[in-house]
Amino acid sequence: MRTMTKTEDNDEEKEDNDEESLAEDDEDNDEEKEDNDEESLAEDDEDEDNDEESLAEDDEDNDEEKEDNDEESLAEDDEDEDNDEESLAEDDLAEDNEDNDEDKEDNDEESLAEDDEDEDNDEEKEDNDEESLAEDDEDEDNEEESLAEDDEDNDEEKEDNDEE
Predict the structure, then answer these.
(1) Which residues have a Cβ under 8 Å from the Cβ of 4 and sit 6 or more positions away?
(2) DSSP code for 108
(3) Rounded distance, CA 147 to CA 154, Å?
């Protein structure tokens, strides 16, 4: 067996050291890669958790917004219903006013007809009063004529009696 020279010895030691260093570097790289992988997985888990939390918050926000919109829509429906009822009430009032106007017009026409009838009755009464006065005048004239005739008859009779 041959003895190694110092240079060969050094080269072999350097080679051993290089192999050991490379093995250590590989091991360190593997550990660092594993640490990085674990850190990356942890970050992925955290991102996933954040995504889930964000989605849950979005769902909650959407639910609240939908609820607000539903409440607003119901309030608008109530307002529309109130407006419809108010409009119907106004229509009823307008119809009542129209009916009242028609009733007033009918009453006015009836009142005018009654006034015409009263006027006719007054004229008829006036005519009857005039006729009655004329009859009274005629009766009075007849009575005066009758009295005059009676006076004349009495005068004649008295004259006849006086002559006898």
Answers:
(1) 12
(2) H
(3) 10
